[in-house]
Amino acid sequence: MSPFSSKTYRYILISTVIIVVIMSLLYANHLVKIIKSDERQKVETWAKAMSLVVDVDAEDRSFDLIWNIIENNENIPVLVINETGELLASRNFSDETFATETTLLQKKIARLRSRHQPIVLDSGEMGDLYVYYDDSILLKKLTAFPYVLWSIIAIILIFGIWIYSAETHAEQNRVWVGLSKETAHQLGTPISSLMALTEILKDTSGNDEIVQEITKDVDRLNTIADRFSKVGSKPVLEASDIASVMQHAIDYMKRRTSSRVQYQINAPEGLTANINVPLFEWVVENLCKNAVDAMGGEGSISVNIEAQKNGIVAIDITDTGKGIERKNFRNVFKPGFTTKKRGWGLGLSLAKRIIEEYHSGKIMVNNSEIGKGTTFRILLNGTEKQLS
Hints:
By secondary structure, the chain is an alpha+beta fold. 54% of the residues lie in helices and 17% in strands.
């Protein structure tokens, strides 16, 4: 087994990417400095050639060399300005509308000056000449390269993490479904045997009370098996009266908890939502069991149901237990998270799956105070009747 967790692998991957990006930035900046220095030297050579071409006779052999220096500049944008601000020459600008517009020329000069200090040449009778230049296209692309590289790596990293998370989630779903189906299958055989034994006991006089209790337990086991069999399958949602469903689930919990736990339901009549009753009751039972544990078997559980805007039905289940720290509001729904010495920490995770994946609703810790209690909120989609 690997000594590293999946979270550790993610940290290692992210750290590696950050190191690669930083190294690429540093190296690219190093190259940019070298090329910038090289380009300035080229511009200085070009500027000197421009100042000499005026004084050298065209028939002089050196004229061809000087002119070749001028013509070989095919990458670096250059402006030559005299002391009065008049444009004498320009090269390698894709748009030269500034050559005829004084305002545009001044803006262009100011922009070039902000990037590089101009090269000043003494041209004798013509006075000083100012050579302004911009970075070549190659240098601009090289400057932008690390950021483009970082963006590409970031996209790949995000996409990779998303794929990894999706695959992990899918694997968890397969485990959930497999475990649930197997549980339902394993329960099937003893339930069938119990049902057969119950029928035998019915024919025996004096066992009516025992048979009645066994029948209740068998029905309960059938309900549990049915719930597990529905995990992984698309459940059928039907318009149901929420108050009646909640009352049925609460009545079941009352019979199986101490009389020191008080239950109260506040709900308007006729409030309906699209739910799968067996699965929804499973959620309510899990929430109530957690509440009873949080209260140490003594306290009160209140259920408040109300209609919200857009036909949403809100169900608040509040206990008077020990409460949940705010930092754990989301963690309580993660598989395996539990504050109890015993337990798998799967109840709330299963509740979240049933509400959000099967009912397209939401479940959350709406409010909690340490030592005072917790309120879980369930949001369900109301029926067309409710929307009207």
